[in-house]
């Protein structure tokens, strides 16, 4: 019976191993997200779990070490020598979550809603907190409201990678 397993691969070899497994008609899932790197020559798609792929195998037919010989592969993730099964539901949840991230415009903006508090983490305004206002039509651009030098918050346009959502804090007791 086919089940999902996590396969550990060498750093930065996920895409290569993916191609090798697909060429052998192995059901494989490579969770990745689109990013806007600072260096334009850097990868535009990055692994969500660096160093891991998910493969659907029938270990009774293929054996535990069936694909360990592939270049770039360390082997299946095991506990006590037994390959760890990844539940089908987890793979489905992961696919849905990555679709939500992609629909939100990438990892930097995933989960941001109008009114969320954000921290500016890069650029000349780094260190300030602001309120997320809108996703702009340009790729990876957002607008935040920043209370700076006046009582009225002013709209500021930034790269989405320059902000991080501030986690809700419990009020002091």
What does this structure look like?
There is one protein chain. With 173 residues, the protein is an alpha+beta fold. The protein is built from 3 helices and 14 strands. The protein has helices at 14-23, 59-62, 88-103; strands at residues 3-9, 27-29, 32-34, 45-47, 52-57, 73-76, 78-79, 82-83, 85-86, 117-120, 129-135, 141-146, 154-159, 163-165. The strands form 4 sheets. Strands 1, 2, 5, 6 and 9 form a 5-stranded antiparallel β-sheet that branches. Strands 13-12-11-10-14 form a 5-stranded antiparallel β-sheet, with no helix packed on it. A hairpin with a 7-residue loop joins strand 12 (141-146) and strand 13 (154-159). The chain is elongated.
Question: Taking Cα atoms only, what radius of gyration do you get, to the nearest Å?
Answer: 21 Å
Give the helix tally. 3
Helix content percent band: 10-25%
Run of helices and strands:
EHEEEEHEEEEHEEEEE
Number of strands: 14
Largest sheet: 5 strands, antiparallel
Layout: helices, strands, pairs:
Blueprint (H helix, E strand, L loop, with lengths): L2 E7 L4 H10 L3 E3 L2 E3 L10 E3 L4 E6 L1 H4 L10 E4 L1 E2 L2 E2 L1 E2 L1 H16 L13 E4 L8 E7 L5 E6 L7 E6 L3 E3 L8
Antiparallel strand pairs: 1-5, 1-6, 1-9, 2-5, 3-4, 7-8, 10-11, 10-14, 11-12, 12-13
Short characterization:
The chain has 173 residues and is α+β, with helices and mostly antiparallel strands. It has helices at 14-23, 59-62, 88-103, and strands spanning 3-9, 27-29, 32-34, 45-47, 52-57, 73-76, 78-79, 82-83, 85-86, 117-120, 129-135, 141-146, 154-159, 163-165.
From the structure above, extract its key features.
single chain, 173 residues, alpha+beta, five-stranded antiparallel beta sheet
């Amino acid at each position: 019976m086919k089940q999902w397993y996590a396969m550990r691969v060498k750093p930065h070899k996920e895409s290569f191993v993916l191609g090798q497994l697909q060429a052998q008609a192995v059901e494989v899932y490579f969770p990745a997200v689109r990013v806007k790197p600072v260096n334009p020559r850097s990868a535009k798609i990055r692994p969500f779990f660096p160093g891991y792929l998910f493969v659907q195998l029938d270990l009774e037919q293929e054996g535990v070490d069936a694909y360990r010989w592939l270049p770039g592969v360390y082997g299946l993730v095991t506990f006590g020598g037994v390959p760890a099964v990844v539940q089908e539901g987890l793979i489905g949840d992961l696919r849905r979550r990555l679709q939500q991230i992609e629909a939100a415009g990438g990892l930097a903006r995933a989960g941001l809603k109008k009114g969320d508090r954000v921290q500016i983490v890069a650029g000349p305004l780094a260190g300030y907190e602001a309120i997320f206002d809108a996703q702009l039509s340009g790729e990876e651009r957002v607008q935040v409201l920043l209370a700076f030098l006046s009582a009225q918050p002013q709209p500021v346009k930034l790269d989405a990678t320059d902000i991080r959502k501030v986690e809700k804090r419990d009020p002091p007791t």
